[in-house]
Specification:
Layout: H1 3-20, H2 22-28, H3 36-54, E1 64-68, H4 74-81, E2 85-90, H5 93-112, E3 121-126, E4 137-142, H6 151-162, E5 165-173, H7 178-187, H8 204-214, E6 221-230, E7 233-241
Parallel strand pairs: 1-2, 1-4, 2-3, 4-5
Antiparallel strand pairs: 5-7, 6-7
Length: 242
Amino acid sequence: MPQTTYLERRDQIETYFDRTAAQAWERLTSTAPVGRIRATVRAGRDQMRGTLLDWLPDDMRGLRLLDAGCGTGALAVEAAQRGAEVVAIDLSPTLVQLARERHLANLARERHGSGGGQGGRIHFTSGDMLDEALGHFDHVVAMDSLIHYDTPDIVAALHRLALRTRGSLLFTFAPRTPLLAAMHRVGRMFPRSDRSPALTPVAQPRLRLGLERSIGASGWREGRSHRVASGFYTSQAWEWTQ
């Protein structure tokens, strides 16, 4: 992996989500009212999360899942409800703490309600999703956690994850469309201190070629692909399996 570009980008993302945007993401990922633009983003993220969950087994008892870039933990919670042992990691300690608090609140409500509780469990932690100390997994989900990186960094990241994954890699990327390319160019015109880490539009054929040469050599093959476009949210889900 070109470590310099990946590490620089990672540090920018950590700073943005942990310091600048934490409160906005707390509201976006709740049920609190939001404006029209953020409502389209919320709806798009909900649809994308549902897509990725549909690609995971219904019964995940005995399976280990890495939620790489867990944010406030919604996907991790649903996977644990299917019985998975989930490692939920994010660069932002603030978002991870919020995810942990929401999870504990849900568990408390379940204990006092009529629900049967969760069969699995979640370990929340902050740090780099590529950390080898996290161990091996049956499935890895990286929802919108690679969308700020360019193609070589995405390929290198997935290669490292594939080495420790037995079943499937489910991830999203920002597809190269005329609208996203224009937004990317405009975003670069603003002073660095005034902008969030920009999405990096990726051409799927080029990404496919990189993955075929990388993880394809060890038996990984592409599976389903699905694009979600909801107002100001556009993201492409892709499945690769052993």
